[in-house]
Write a structure and sequence with these properties.
It is a single chain. The chain is α+β, with helices and mostly antiparallel strands and 273 residues long. The protein has two domains: 104 residues, Rossmann fold, CATH 3.40.50; 125 residues, SH3 type barrels (Roll), CATH 2.30.30.110. 29% of the residues lie in helices and 25% in strands. The chain is built from seven helices and twelve strands. The strands form two sheets. Strands 5, 6, 7, 8, 9, 10, 11 and 12 form an eight-stranded antiparallel β-sheet that branches. β1, α1 and β2 form a beta-alpha-beta unit. It starts with 15 loop residues before the first strand and ends in a 12-residue tail after the last helix. 28% of the residues are buried.
Length: 273
Amino acid sequence: MRRKGRNKKPVMTNPTRCIVILSSDEQHNEIKAEEAENRQLNRIREFTKQNNLIPVAIVRRGIMGRVVYNRYFSGAIECMRQGKAEAVVCVNMDTISYGIADAYYRVGLIKEAGFRIFTVDEKEPMMHLYMPPKRGCSQMKIRRNMVIWAELKNQGKCVQTGIRPCVVISNNTANAHSPVFTVMPGTTQDKKKDFPVHVKVTAKDVNGRLYKDTFFMGEQMCTIGERQIINVLGEIKDEGVIQQINEVIVRELALDNENLNRGGQNVLDNGQQ
């Protein structure tokens, strides 16, 4: 039942990619199953439009059995681990589970992987679970030059926000003992070609799962808490790329001797690289 006067605040403040899961009770008639799923899809489209959710894939159960459906559900989680989405959306938990125990299990799988689930009827079903997400140094050993998937807080215009790849640039002594990390956020959109404080990192430069060429931005360096870390995508092993990152840090912070001697004036101020 929909309540009148419900808070219209969107569930996500920043655009978030999601995987839509459609499922009905129909087990024999493919046409009826498709019609039921299409009705769900119409509701989900309205919900995602109002809540800053961007569907990137649709999983249809149709009349497939439980074993095959479970395989599809696991595939959706793996897609999120690969950085293709950050959340799952469905009409309600009843449509994607086989009972209360199974509903807890599916929500648990998603949250344990560090992602979120939203439904049209419940918005974000917490189901009274206390499950610390797989974030932070207690679950992962974060090292310098790792590429991580992190949720950056909204700090105003022109500052990178939302869930995005970041490269860790804090030293490993601090990384081993501190709950905070210094990172350089990345973007897949190259808006400033040959910008002297940007580093391009390709999938082949990373030992892991970076699926798109990413530009890490020295001017966006920031500190994040361990709970903002969602997952580790891999680690940069290419010495040439690591050297470029180090040079960007020096350039952005004006740490070279010439700039230190003239009071820290950034090399970008006078057009030099």
